[in-house]
Amino acid sequence: MSDRLFPALNALLPGTLIGGFLLLSGGVQAATPTKRPTDESRGEELYERHCVACHGAAAKGHGPATQALVRPVPDLQGKVLIDDPTINILMRGMGAMPSYEQTFDRFDAKRVLQHMAKLEAPANPPPVPTPPLPPQPDSTPAE
Ligand code: HEC
């Protein structure tokens, strides 16, 4: 019984080993991302990594690193231009802002500006507690 089973197993085994190996390497390949990130996700990633420390999550210039700067970072919310002069500023740096020439190319500069231009105050800001209004006197004039 067993000597009939084992040759069959032995014949199978090399095959299963190779098959298993191929499957495994195939699986590893499939796990690496094959799709390029979208322009939006690339812009967001770059902003989070390189800009948010100064310009802040809403581009109002209140990032945590601004504590260490002598001059405030300007409030750029809704004012970000996506044009060649602004891309030049990013690539070369300006004032306290470093140059990004060594970090990314002009296409990425445009992506990050596109992301920055869309930043705004959070849609649902935490509710500010307001004291209850005092009872209003009846304003309808008595005639
Ligand atoms: C170290 C802090 C700092 C970092 C990091 C930083 N910035 Fe700035 N940024 C500034 C300051 C300060 C100014 C104002 C410069 C001035 O007017 O002298 C500025 C100005 C700007 C402006 C306005 C340029 C104009 O037209 O006047 C844009 C747009 C901008 N930054 C985008 C970015 C982007 C995008 C990043 C990330 C890739 C970034 N910044 C990273 C500090 C920073």
Class by helix and strand content? Answer: mainly alpha
CATH fold assignment of the domain at 39-118: Cytochrome Bc1 Complex, Chain D, domain 2
CATH superfamily (homologous) name of the domain at 39-118: Cytochrome c-like domain
Count of alpha/pi helices: 4
Residue runs with pLDDT of under 50 for 5 or more positions: 15-27
Distance from N terminus to C terminus (CA atoms, Å) equals 113 Å
How confident overall, as mean pLDDT?
82
CATH architecture term of the domain at 39-118 = Orthogonal Bundle
Percentage beta strand? under 5%
Short description:
With 143 residues, this protein is an all-alpha fold. It has helices at 2-31, 39-55, 84-92, 106-118.
Structure description:
The protein is an all-alpha fold and 143 residues long. It has a domain at 39-118: Cytochrome Bc1 Complex, Chain D, domain 2. 48% of the residues lie in helices and 0% in strands. The chain contains 4 helices and no strands. It has helices spanning 2-31, 39-55, 84-92, 106-118. The protein is elongated, with a radius of gyration of 30 Å. The termini are far apart. It binds heme C. Heme C is lined by residues 50-51, 53-55, 65, 73-74, 76, 80, 86, 89-90, 94-97, 100, 112-113, 116.
